[in-house]
Batch of 2 targets.
Target 1
Amino acid sequence: MFRALADICKAAEQGNISFWEAIMVNDCKDRQLTKEQSFAQMQAMYQAMKDADAGYDANLVSASGLVGKDGARLQQYVDSGKAICGSFMGKVMEKAVKMGESNACMKRIVAAPTAGACGVVPAVFIAMQEAYGFSDEKMTEAMYVAAGIGGVIASRAFIAGAAGGCQAEIGSASSMAAGGAAYLMGGDSTAITHAAAIAMKNLLGLVCDPVAGLVEIPCVKRNVSGAMVAISAADLALAGVESRIVPDEVIDAMREVGVQMPACVRETGEGGLAATPSGVKAKEKVFG
């Protein structure tokens, strides 16, 4: 596994291959797979994301009763043509909520990189495929880009809210989606890595404060924020806007911020939104 985004860029340049191919080659080496085997597994993972999106059940509510049905409400609103963000961004929002709710309702999702952040990457990727007509093969290549970015973050910092707050989950997912989106729109290694860095910077310091200790509130709606940040970060990078802080240093900064966060806002459900009067009431309602 690569430990730096710069190393992926270097491997791609030295091998005269694309960013995603450098990640695939590394995966084949690490797991002793053929390129065909690796690609098939990654494509199956993307298909699982699409299946989860298509299998959203508008009637399901989580066991706690805290989340459910908002994806359907959002879909109806977007379809009405009234969404301020427009139809494309509206679809991204809708898919992010649906995936987050499906996770809370114990349906099959793909952790990307975690279950709590499962809505960001598929919301961006599936919406882009539907809007631009990318093939499943092209989307699989974008999945490698996202996976490579996530792998670097996991090895260089962390992807768990308990370790580094929600910046490690939604922030990482947003970086992964941003890099993948930049790749899909023709971005080179520079655009990919700077898109990832910009997304992470915009979510730096995000705490993990789940109400009642459940991955529901505010987790589901934060998937929407992560997806929206990812798309804006990709557009910035594609326009030639670069992160003034070196991308790998942004990841390092996320780690340092996470280490400094108090335990009450690292997935313990003891601080932040979880400690508000509304949050406490919700917890009492769930657990009695």
Target 2
Amino acid sequence: MEELLIDMHVTKKIHTSNGTEILDVELKISKYQLVTLFGKSGAGKTTVLKIIAGLLSVDSGYIKVGDDVWLDSTQKINLRPQKRNIGFVFQDYALFPNMTVKENLLYAYPHQEKNYVSELLDIFHLKGLCERRPNQLSGGQQQRLAVARALARKPKILLLDEPLSALDYDTRKILQDEIILAHKNFNATTILVSHDINEVVKLSDYMYIMHDGKIVKNGTPQQCGMVGLL
């Protein structure tokens, strides 16, 4: 039986284009899974990631990660983001513009473990770009660096908020392969927000479909009927 890593149930009042909604989400995610939150814009997907990361508060609920309690509204427990072992890749990359590629990675993981950083550079095809700064990189290269930097922290949980949405089809396809490889090599449990059906089918071990702040369906992409939509 797969080992449960994330057990959470949270509620939060959110404001959407349709007015005020109640986000009410329960997730159970096994260790080392790559799980997708799928749904239209405004469904609450990014809000869920930010709650897991500790960047947004909740009205009620809990988040348990392994044996640790990250959030429990009844016990007044709410770990700061710095105390949660996560890597977060935002849509806008959030790279340090004054640092080189290698410096961005070393800042995220300052233990000077050269083999680990070298492996990240290899997987994401950044080795020849070590001395360049983010403004000297293409969009695809910046996204590679953003994912590599998130993994450089050796996170227990990797959160990806539509990381490939701004890239062209060919670049997306390459980055998807690299994300799969990195997910397997670095043993991070990964939660991906996406509204791209092809991406969901290719990457997901399991998925949650969201609508108006609720989970309306969950299972493998096949169980959720995604494969038939391709």
